[in-house]
Amino acid sequence: MSGPVPPPAETRSGFVALAGRPNAGKSTLVNSVVGDKVAIVSDKPQTTRREVRGIATRPDWQLVLVDLPGVQRPRDPMTERMQHSVERALGDADAVLFVLNGEQQVGKGDRFIARAIRAARVKAVVAVNKVDRLSRQRTIEALMAAEGLGIEGEIFPVSARTGAGVPELVEHLVTLLPVGPFLYPAEDVTDLPERVHLAELIREQVLLRTRDELPHAVEVELGEVVGREDGPLEIEAYLWAEGESQKAILIGAGGRMVKAIGTAARKELQSTFGRRVHLDLRVRVRKAWRKDDALLDRLGIG
Ligand SMILES: Nc1nc2c(ncn2[C@@H]2O[C@H](COP(=O)(O)OP(=O)(O)OP(=O)(O)O)[C@@H](O)[C@H]2O)c(=O)[nH]1
Ligand SMILES: [Mg+2]
Fold this sequence. Notes:
Elements lengths: L11 E8 L6 H9 L17 E7 L2 E7 L9 H16 L2 E7 L6 H13 L2 E7 L6 H12 L7 E3 L8 H10 L18 H16 L4 H4 L1 E9 L5 E9 L2 H8 L4 H18 L3 E9 L7 H7 L3
Parallel strand pairs: 1-3, 1-4, 4-5, 5-6, 8-9
Antiparallel strand pairs: 2-3, 7-8
Helix pairs in contact: 6-9
């Protein structure tokens, strides 16, 4: 038979919010489902600070995954805002995907999240992640521990890193979506504004190269972005540090640290946006930026 393919009779679409402790692999899982790097990932807890929606579209469904900050006790106005945004997102979603780190024992933090999900009265699914690091026996134990959390919903063993188990999980999530038209254009993979996406990819390189308190104390804000035809995308960005000693670490001996961050970030940006990038990074001190409501608003946190 020839001729145009008729559109599917019925489409499903909706939002699935990801909840879980910091470092469970929520952002990695979103990138794996979307097939593109929409959310930044690092081994530091609390990598995600702002909601990121990753969009996966097939002819008959559109799944919008809402990547959220890891749930933990707030420590300052910034983490408080992050926490509130998580609660709001759980209430607004069509379903919640609770991501557990299979490498760790189920703990107090997970039971706290399980209670919040039950209280939100939303359909839930559990993913036990990082099974690529577990033996068969330990995977079974992790699945049983997940069951002990008392979430009414299916439990899937997955590896966001290798993709194992992810298609089965996605297939199930789609069945939980309401019937309805697509919410975003089929070619979109995220709703992040380009400026935020750019700043996040730079922040990822800061996270990968810093440790202790520093990863949590740095924020990236874009300055001017100029993209002339035939020329590179010229990006100016500020790295906000909270004090002079942090600033010194970020700059590094002879400027080596900021240079390494800049080189790596430029490569990421070039491959993500498919064009040449010129990046001008400036390290600045802004005391207590995590308590600065106006700045947090501008940065879109909470
Ligand atoms: N081995 C293995 N590592 C994983 C897997 N998924 C994620 N990771 C690693 O776990 C770390 C945390 O991943 P993220 O995706 O940033 O975790 P997150 O849950 O989004 O963390 P927050 O944003 O801090 O809440 C990173 O180092 C990932 O590479 C997995 O399936 N297997
Ligand atoms: Mg994350």
